[in-house]
What we know:
Layout: E1 2-3, H1 9-12, H2 19-43, H3 60-70, E2 76-80, H4 87-96, E3 111-115, H5 120-129, E4 135-140, H6 147-164, E5 172-176, H7 183-190, E6 193-196, H8 210-218, H9 223-236, H10 245-258, E7 263-268, H11 274-288, E8 304-307, H12 318-323, E9 328-335, H13 362-379, E10 384-389, H14 394-414, H15 423-435, H16 442-450
Parallel strand pairs: 2-3, 2-4, 4-5, 5-6, 7-8, 7-9, 9-10
Antiparallel strand pairs: 1-10
Bound molecules: 5-phosphoarabinonic acid (PA5).
Amino acid sequence: xxxxxxxxxxxxxxxGLDHDALLEERAARLEAARDAVLxxxxxxxxxxxxxxxxxxxxxxxxxxxxxxxxxGRYDDLxxxxxxxxxxxxxxxxxxxxxxxxxxxADRPGMRVHFVDNVDGDVITGLLExxxxxxxxxxxxxxxxxxxxxxxxxxxxxxxLRAHVGDAYxxxxxxxxxxxxxxxxxxxxxxxxxxxxxPPSVGGRFSVLSAVGLLPAALGGVxxxxxxxxxxxxxxxxxxxxxxxxxxxxxxxxxxxxxxxxNITVFMPYSTRLRFLSDWFAQLWAESLGKNRQRSGGSxxxxxxxxxAVGTTDQHSQVQLYREGPQDKxxxxxxxxxxxxGALIPNAEPDEPEMNYLGEKPYQALMNAELAATAxxxxxxxxxxxxxxxxxxxxxxxxxxxxxxxxxxAVMGELLDINAFDQPGVELGKxxxxxxxxxxxxxxxxxxxRRAGVEV
Length: 455
Ligand code: PA5
């Protein structure tokens, strides 16, 4: 699945790596990093590694039962969440539903709408076009306090109550921490159905929890298949470094990062996988951008993810990747087979500028563009790797998601940081509370006033 030929010295000269020698030298270190993650997970009780339990699917029966109650009664699902509470579901639903699912007359699942910003025009615009009697709202917030999500929740609750009266209680599902936070007691008071975000699962690692599985199941995706793929990735993680693509992927990212390639571009060649780039960017940035080492000391580490989608961004970014600074490594995602196997018709047989395309599969063109771009980058000394999946299915997407989470966990070990917290995000949240007049934030309000910061 992982093609590393375009990082080698044979192809890149001095810009490349002698991958075999490097792997030989670093195999023990990579396996030690992997084993450290596995040991903490297996010991149980780790505050961060609950996401490694998720492929087991303990929550699947509850998700399916709830989805079964809601299916048929409602046409639209509105998912309220941000960052890790939104991007996983968005990735899965966009990849696995029919590309124009929402326009289909006979849909195999609900229409799913993700609200992940505080844009009032978008939120009120969505509510203007939905039927409140046929809409269910899934508010997702582990902490239950995130401003953006709470604002959207307030809009949706008010809208439902205004149109359906007390029945709004049956039309809101809360996915949140099983015990802590504001949303849990609120949901219980209101009588909302609830699903858990396990305390040891951070947002960006939560796609295979109820956070991602409920939107997937309601949208008509086979959630069990996602989990089966993730289980197989996790089994692969146990292999020796020489056979382990997760460890080898981490090695390549780590080594190029240390050589000054501090930008990592993630570029699936698929419109359906376009949000995998957004999901990956959050996973990578929030997990690995840290300035505190576990063994003590403070060094700023992390490489900057750039999201892209092929072929579209060939026409906007590849110029920079070929001729700009040699500070990047690219990851392409290639899909072998498209679902429909669509052919480009030979509608202009006498036009030589077009007839070479006639009767060729679209996927052949997509993959030719990928191969051509990858080679053009090699010629310019820019390393790139390709993850190939046979098709876009729940199984293969589950595999890739877990593969990338495990790779990120190993990167955290190699960088000697905690990949699972996000202290750098907190201050902005707290200062927003202060600016918006939330109680208990007087000190921060005063500090902002002194600094001349106001809304
Ligand atoms: O990955 C993360 O931890 C964040 O992106 C959170 O998911 C995001 O801030 C939303 O947090 P919450 O689920 O508490 O509303």
